[in-house]
Records
---
Amino acid sequence: MIYRVRTISLTSGTTEDARALASKAAAYATEHFADVTVEILTNIAGPQHQIHMVTRCQSLAALETYEERRKEDAGWLALVEEWHTRQLGGESVDRLYRSVS
């Protein structure tokens, strides 16, 4: 199993709105793109102005297919545009993990 964790720093004062829209995007991705599950995590301890979008899939090839399909999906692109228009987040960092058990 492959996990991509995208950590996104949130813009000051937008935490609740960002969490809501990110959750909507995660549900959309899970429903509309085969072979992936997306969840939004928040910190219990540490910086509270971050969210983590965790994408889970069977292989790196499946992740690449998902990435390509998102670039052409009107519903996904509308969610991304709303995120940017509302200026909910800033810098993001991606990390890839593979389960070993």
---
Amino acid sequence: MRLGYNARLSLGLIVVTVLTLAFCWQTSVYIEKTADNLAVYLTEVRGAVQAEDWPAADRSLQQGLTGWQQARPFWLGLLNHQDVINIDLALHSLAAFAQEQRTDEVFNQLSLLDYYLKLAVESDKVNLSNLF
């Protein structure tokens, strides 16, 4: 059985649409997973700062920064660059404030990072408002 031109075109469009939606879903899962991993380190930093254990806070922060540097190139390809830049700036500010042991500023940057991460995850989710 031979398919006509319209049937082949329709089938091709359906395949492309399904592949595109699958790619969008996969990238959304990746963004959410890496954001959750970074959030774990930030929670450890928050706990260490509350306990005034600055060496532990620095270790957790360095682990988080390492994970972020590995994920960052992929995020740049998948998200709005400004979202990635905001996370970069907040992470580096957090590291500087932690090194100076400035508790209030560390908590401010942690809150800001939580916001930026949630914003990035929400803006990348596959839903009707993000598609249209």
---
Amino acid sequence: MMKYSKEVTLLHPIAQKYPSCVKDLNLIIRKDLKSSADLFTEVETIDLDDVQEKRAIELKKDKDSSVDTCFVTSNGTKRVILVELKLGIINPNTHFGNSKKRKEFLKKFTDSITLLGEEPPIHNKYYAVFSPDVLQEAKRRLYQIGKEFGQDYIVLSIDELKQTFFQEDKLS
């Protein structure tokens, strides 16, 4: 069972290089879901959109795409977990309905992988968080997209994300 590690997340080279981009997960969720209450307690993750903006300024180039956030788990082997928030999506079929949008979605993960490097290794399953209203349709759509691109996308609700990685008795 993988569990979030605040300590190991804060030691990630990107978190060290861009400490202002380490944020409370509730704040990152609020960028996607404006009226969200605090759902997590003392969970700090790396805001990859913010990192990409800062890198674009440093490198004087256009911002690469990225998933919304990542964190590191530690339970034996450390793994970086990539999470894309899609909480405002009303219709996954429309949102992922054409090839261009599917490729843009994939590019968020590939650009994030390039940004984060190889240490610690990135988990080979990519997480997308949707509202409960569209969860089943999102699972079907992302399963198809995963087959198309040879990726393994895991679709979760916020509650499922919390249960999977952030159970209070599982935090280190």
